[in-house]
Design goal:
- Strands 1, 2, 3, 4, 5, 11, 12, 13, 14 and 15 form a ten-stranded mixed β-sheet that branches.
- Helix 1 (12-24) links the parallel strand 1 and strand 2.
- By secondary structure, this protein is an alpha/beta fold.
- It has helices at 12-24, 35-44, 63-72, 107-112, 114-120, 132-141, 152-158, 205-215, 246-259, and strands spanning 2-6, 28-32, 49-56, 60-61, 76-84, 88-91, 102-105, 125-128, 146-150, 161-164, 174-181, 192-198, 219-227, 235-242, 262-273.
- The protein is built from nine helices and 15 strands.
Length: 274
């Protein structure tokens, strides 16, 4: 069994994939350069499952992942892996103590460390790259005073020295990763359930849809709207819900499906904590 993940090595995505693989008793994990590549590899059968980032507690939802699951692929969420995020400032050993010329990192990481970087390196240009690990690689191969915001494992892989640990703006910083597969995980099991739906553009329609969940005492833990992409003003709603009573959840979602004009179940799944 193969599990694909958003690479390269040394990223938080790899950490999530390793955690999930150990939990599943799998050792073979394969890096891909883009979220799209991971999802398509699962859909095409090149790998059995894929691990992709979905939501950060500071920066919110990774919209590309969400939109891909809604519109582009027919995959189901098999598990959620929650990874604590700890960003570190690093550089080559000979640059420690010097002022950086540029700081490299993934856009999400730079955003999560924005206050720290503005306070300590206000005039330093920040460069966005595809991953934290790539940032560390660029710094390791340069002969200039370049710094990176990346993971401890990336520092080890590329032989960098950590200047300061834990520079993220919020101490409580976590990212949700989804493990996805072609296997339909349905709703007839315990766990968190995720789905998307759209409704008529009329007053009270969203209230009527969500009231169904209230009737069955189902806990709504997340709701987010995304554009339908076919015309302005049309939206699709993503929701996470929790309910211990499987029969209540089945009945509620059957009724919800009848009240909506588009309904897609993304799966019911386990949560794997760090």
């Amino acid at each position: 069994m193969k599990i694909g993940y958003l690479g390269p090595e040394g990223t938080f995505s790899q950490m999530a994939a390793v955690k999930y693989a150990k939990n599943a008793g799998v050792c073979d994990i394969v890096p891909f350069s883009k979220i799209t590549d991971v999802l398509k590899a699962v859909e095409n059968g090149d790998v059995d499952e894929g691990v992709v980032p979905f939501e950060n507690s500071i920066e919110g939802t990774v919209n590309f992942t969400l939109d891909s699951l809604i519109f582009d692929v027919e995959l189901f969420i098999k598990a959620e892996i929650t990874v604590p995020i700890r960003h570190n400032l690093m550089t080559r050993a000979e640059c420690v103590g010097k002022y950086p010329e540029k700081i490299f990192s993934h856009p999400q990481s730079l955003a999560q460390c924005r206050k720290y970087l503005e306070e300590h390196y206000e005039n330093v240009e920040t460069i966005q790259v595809l991953s934290n690990s790539e940032a560390a690689k660029i710094v390791s191969e340069s002969d200039k005073n370049y710094f990176a915001v990346s993971t401890e494992s990336a520092a080890e892989i590329y032989g960098l020295s950590i200047v300061e640990k834990g520079i993220q703006d919020k101490s409580h910083n976590e990212t949700r990763f989804f493990a996805v597969s072609k296997q339909d995980t349905g709703i007839t099991r315990k766990g968190k359930t995720s789905l998307v739906f759209s409704i008529d553009h009329k007053p009270g329609e969203l209230y009527k849809a969500l009231d169904i969940l209230s009737i069955w005492d189902i806990n709504l833990t997340k709701i987010e709207s995304r554009p339908m992409k076919d015309h302005l003003g049309a939206y699709i709603f993503y929701i996470d819900l929790e309910c211990d009573n499987i029969n209540d959840r089945i009945d509620a979602l059957k009724m919800l499906e009848r009240k909506t004009n588009f309904f897609k179940l993304l799966g019911t799944y386990d949560i794997i904590k760090w």
